[in-house]
């Protein structure tokens, strides 16, 4: 497959698109795709921060292709910035099509996660 774009970042989450997540036409709801991206962001940011994290912002997401029932969703994350209490990640959602052998980029976005202490207040992230 020459000139194919490839996912950026680390594979963080894989899941299967099921009928309960779709409209009557078989297209998976965008909110479901976004929630998988949010889960992956939380996993990767919590590993880096070594504590609980919450979503502070989602920036500029556009859906390029639909996800269909039976597709395997692969979510890739890349940490692009670690601030004092926040972690910014580039997140890409890719669909492995169930009907033919293709991996296609569905959407991408920037997620900002904030590290939280045991009292629910932002907490500094170690530089390591």
Highlighted features:
five-stranded antiparallel beta sheet, 128 residues, alpha+beta
Can you describe this structure?
With about 130 residues, the protein is of the alpha+beta class. The protein contains 1 helix and 5 strands; from the N terminus they run E-H-E-E-E-E. The chain has a 5-stranded antiparallel sheet with strand order 1-3-4-5-2, with helices on one face. The protein is elongated, with a radius of gyration of 16 Å. The termini are far apart. The mean pLDDT is about 95.
What is shown here, in short?
The protein is of the alpha+beta class and 128 residues long.
Placed side by side, the strands forming the largest sheet appear as 1-3-4-5-2
Number of strands: 5
- How far apart are the first and last residues' alpha carbons, in Å? 38 Å
Structural class: alpha+beta
Helix and strand element order: EHEEEE
Which percent band covers the strand fraction? 35-45%
In percent, how helical is the residue content? 10-25%
What composes the largest sheet?
A: 5 strands, antiparallel
Radius of gyration: 16 Å
Q: Round the mean pLDDT to the nearest integer and report it.
A: 94
Q: What is the overall number of helices?
A: 1
């Amino acid at each position: 497959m020459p000139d194919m774009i490839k996912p950026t970042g680390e594979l963080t989450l894989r899941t299967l698109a099921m009928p309960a997540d779709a409209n009557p036409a078989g297209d998976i709801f965008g909110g479901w795709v976004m929630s998988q991206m949010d889960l992956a962001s939380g996993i990767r940011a919590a590993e880096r921060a070594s504590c609980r994290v919450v979503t502070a912002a989602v920036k500029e997401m556009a859906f390029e292709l639909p996800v269909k029932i039976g597709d395997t969703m692969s979510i890739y994350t890349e940490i692009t910035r670690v601030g004092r209490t926040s972690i910014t990640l580039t997140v890409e959602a890719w669909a492995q099509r169930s009907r033919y052998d293709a991996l296609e980029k569905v959407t991408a976005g920037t997620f900002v996660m904030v590290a939280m202490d045991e009292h629910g207040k932002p907490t500094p992230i170690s530089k390591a």
